[in-house]
Amino acid sequence: MKVLVVGGGGREHALCWKIRQSPLCTDLVCAPGNPGIEKVARLAPVAAEDVEGLVRLAVAERIDLVVVGPEKPLSLGLADALEKAGIACFGPSREAAQMESSKAFAKGVMERAGIPTAAFGVFEDPAEAKAFSRSHGGKVAVKADGLAAGKGVVVTDTVADAEAAIDEMLVGKAFGAAGARVVIEEKLEGEEASLIALVDGERFVMLAPAQDHKRVGEGDTGPNTGGMGAYSPTPAVSAADLRTIAERVLAPAVAQLKAEGKPFRGALYAGLMMTKDGPKVIEFNARLGDPETQPILARLDSDLLPALAAAARGDLRGVELRFSEKPALTVVMAAAGYPASVRTGDRIEGLDEVHEDEDLVVFHAGTARKDGAVVTSGGRVLGVTARGATLEEARARAYAACEKIHFAGAHYRRDIAYRAFARVATESQ
Fold this sequence. Notes:
Elements: E1 2-7, H1 10-20, E2 27-32, E3 42-43, H2 51-60, E4 65-68, H3 71-75, H4 78-84, E5 88-90, H5 98-101, H6 103-113, E6 120-123, H7 126-135, E7 140-144, E8 153-156, H8 159-171, E9 182-186, E10 191-200, E11 204-206, E12 211-212, E13 215-217, E14 221-224, E15 229-232, H9 239-259, E16 265-275, E17 278-285, H10 293-299, H11 304-313, E18 328-334, E19 360-364, E20 367-370, E21 373-376, E22 380-387, H12 391-402, H13 418-428
Parallel strand pairs: 1-2, 1-4, 2-3, 4-5
Antiparallel strand pairs: 6-9, 7-8, 7-9, 10-11, 10-16, 12-15, 13-14, 15-18, 16-17, 18-22, 19-22, 20-21
């Protein structure tokens, strides 16, 4: 198969790294890619949001399967355009991708399907939004309805903070059109987890569970980011929880979308809160998570490519995925200023000192080439990913690699998987 991966971040590097290992992959192209991806794929200078350009590229290259990484091209209808051109695509249609591009749409699907989630309201009027937040004592999550690069969510504990977040989005237009409408939810209590499934329109195959770290600071402090690290598996999700998620979250969501004439093909990501009453959905995404994809694929022992092709084809029957018992952990090294105003163009040193193998790989997320050197080009720069016989070993291996890599203003959390270690410590007492 000739495969085209769309995107240029850490998730796409992980996808290319794994797809290249498949004996079915005869040629691999990535658009636009990055300096890390060019080690395993040919790069094409076509932007991830250039739908027409990507279709032309896929036709010219005689691509058999397009794997879409980011959410934006899906919301722009890339899968629909590829289908018209007769090219298989792993990624949902524009209508089905509303599971991520519109939080109001997703909450409506959850409500109609009876999926456990937080109580919510959808608002365009600031006064009505504030009244709802006051009714919950300010303990709410204020979310921009549209796509905001993972940053359009503010979780608050006071009425004053909730009203400030509402004003920022609806009055100050902090997220532009994406925040012209907001979804406000009751704040759920518990531990967060991520569960991603490959979906063919009516069936699904679950990937291993993972846990992301959204806040920029250690101990989950500071503003939200696109994700500062992740690990898999997570003790927050038991085998019983997995069965509940399959039966009460994924199956009803897939069935509801099909029933509404918007069958979902691609990766359906469920962001979950593991509450005392069981798993509840915080959000759905219409693609693989970033950075969760990195540790999940590091643990995947099966060939990924046939599963992606089967989902795109609409027939996952017989597909099974095997995951290593070895845990995996990803540490995101971020650029100066992230997640606020980011400085780019800083030279990255030490990449050659990290000896990559099957248990250690540095996924490039926000990098570029300048004057022959690899430099920072985005907020999240690298995803240093390691496997180990234990989670502790994986963590030590990842952080040892991080210490060899240097660029001006580099910062990263030093407590990835801290909840898992805290849980072990508590259970051992």
